[in-house]
Amino acid sequence: MNLDTTGDMPPKSVATTRAQASAYAWVVFALMFCLMLSDYMSRQALNALFPILKVQWQMSDTHLGSISSVVPFTVGVLTLPFSIIADRWGRAKSIGLMVALWSVATLGCAIASNYHEMFVARLFVGIGEAAYGSVGIAILLNIFPKHMRSSIAGGFTSAAAFGSVLGVSLSGLVATHFGWRWSMGVMAIFGFVLFIIYCCVVTDKKLERAHPVDAGPVAHGYAKLTPRALLAGIFPSRSVFCAYLGSALQVFIQGTLFVWLPSYLNRYWGMSVSKAALTAAGLVLVSGVGQFLCGVITDRFSGGSSLKRWNMAIVYCFALGILLAIAFRLPQGTLQLAVLASAVFFLASSFGTCSPIIAGATSPAIHGSAFATLTLFNNILGLAAGPFLTGAAADVMGLQAALHWLPVLAILPFTVFLIGRRYGIAEASRD
């Protein structure tokens, strides 16, 4: 692996004139962004309803954590096999099927009458959403020029934060005025509308025609890979493994805060369900803005260098840990909220650094599977483990005490990023 370029720089014939994205590529980006909004609105809307369900169904924090964590856990387990199917069957067609399934499952959440029915409905939400993130980003990175990868990856994945904002805030408002079932129903309707638009606009043939000159070869021949060759392609080096792992450990913190902030504000700040949901949504919105801007900043200062992307990941994670430590030591009030907002700005920064590192080190033919592996790590070790383990800890020590451990946990991704950078330098010296 070339540490300075990781295969990201255009060939000399086009190096002096950077390729520009087509109008169709931006239309696809807008649709994929909206679908990611729907994905996370359906996923996170339930978090704002925790205070209601806890009383109405007499649920413990462990049970609440489980109906939240079952979605990312299912996504993590199924993302790789579903992405392999999508790479072979057609990425555009596969995404259409995914959207239809998670929208139907979200409607199932609206009519659930007890914990077990809700758990099953949430399970199917996870099945529908399993490969969307990995297949979606694989599509986008193959229709945009290489020099835009961090910005596109950060922009696309920032929709997760914006979707969480819309899901949590809208869910809390709808539940207050019309009941919690309508909260989930609105999310389902939004998904169905996007499904119809997507099917009319995006096809695999149109995506292939939108492939830019400097994005490398069109992804063909995937089905010829043996399982051993596929595994070697997904994990081409130790530094890439560190990118997967470091991202997941940072997402652990992100997933925990996204799920438990509404309950934290409701219990310890005395906010109503709707106000807690709106406040938490505001913090998640800050995270989404930070996710996008961190990607843009990384593109600006990395110049296509993998080493500089590692440096940016380390700086972002360090800032996150320090600001979280300060925030949770402050008394409740405006200052604590302001520092917490500064911390969550860096919460999802790893998407804009790790995604292009992985893209530059893997073949375009297996980008779907490579990003599925990143999704697997992020969901199993991050989005699933974080909320569930925090819920279990909250049953023992209280939610506030459990959240105070998050700054300590930030040491883990910081350390992995340092190790990944060291491996990257060593690997480059051998090339």
TrEMBL record:
Residues annotated as domain Major facilitator superfamily (MFS) profile: 27-431
The protein's GO terms of the molecular function aspect are: transmembrane transporter activity
Top-rank taxon of the source lineage equals Bacteria
Predominant subcellular localization, coarse grouping? membrane
Q: Where in the cell is it found?
A: Membrane
| Keyword Membrane tagged | yes
Under InterPro entries, the record lists: MFS, MFS_dom, MFS_spinster-like, MFS_trans_sf
PANTHER family annotated for this entry? PROTEIN SPINSTER, SPINSTER
Q: What is this protein called?
A: MFS transporter
